[in-house]
């Protein structure tokens, strides 16, 4: 799945621009859960039975709220990636 497809998928059922602050707080909450899963060593690619509390799950949760916030603020993350790549190549001489 492309990032633009993930953004569109999330926007189809979870898009409430009036709750921007709520989405941001959820993102921070998920970053905290990611920290805990890393500290607990729940790394690697889990299967369905072992996803709960894993780094994989929390990374996805962070990505979910990044996409939701991007949707609320009218940001196309793929286009932003393309622009940042140009800027970062110049900045870091890649
Ligand atoms: Mg989570």
What does this structure look like?
- By secondary structure, this protein is mainly alpha-helical.
- It has 4 helices and no strands.
- The protein is globular, with a radius of gyration of 15 Å.
- The structure holds magnesium ion (MG).
- Magnesium ion binds next to α2 and α3.
Describe the protein's topology.
Layout: H1 3-13, H2 20-39, H3 55-72, H4 77-91
Residues 30, 33, 57-58, 61 line the site of magnesium ion.
Organism: Motilimonas cestriensis
Domain NTP pyrophosphohydrolase MazG-like: 20-89
Pfam families: MazG (PF03819)
Q: List ligands, each type once.
A: magnesium ion
**Which oligomerization state do the chains in this entry correspond to?**
single chain
Number of domains: 1
CATH superfamily: MazG-like
Q: How many beta strands in the DSSP annotation?
A: 0
Which architecture per CATH? Orthogonal Bundle
| Biggest sheet descriptor | none
- What Rg, in angstroms, do the CA atoms define? 15 Å
Beta-strand percent range: under 5%
CATH fold assignment: Helix Hairpins
Distance between the termini: 27 Å
Q: In terms of structural class, how would the helical and strand content be classed?
A: mainly alpha
Pick out the low-confidence regions: none
- How many H/I helical runs? 4
Helix content: 55-70%
Along the chain, the helix and strand elements come as: HHHH
The mean pLDDT is 97
Please give the CATH class. Mainly Alpha
Overall geometric form: globular
């Amino acid at each position: 799945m492309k990032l633009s497809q993930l953004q569109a998928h999330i926007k189809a059922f979870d898009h409430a621009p009036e709750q921007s602050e709520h989405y941001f707080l959820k993102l921070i909450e998920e970053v905290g859960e990611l920290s805990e899963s890393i500290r607990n060593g729940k790394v690697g690619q889990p299967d369905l039975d072992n996803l709960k509390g894993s780094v994989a799950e929390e990374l996805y949760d962070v990505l979910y709220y990044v996409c939701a916030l991007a949707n609320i603020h009218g940001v196309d993350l793929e286009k932003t990636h393309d622009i940042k790549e140009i800027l970062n190549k110049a900045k870091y001489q890649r």
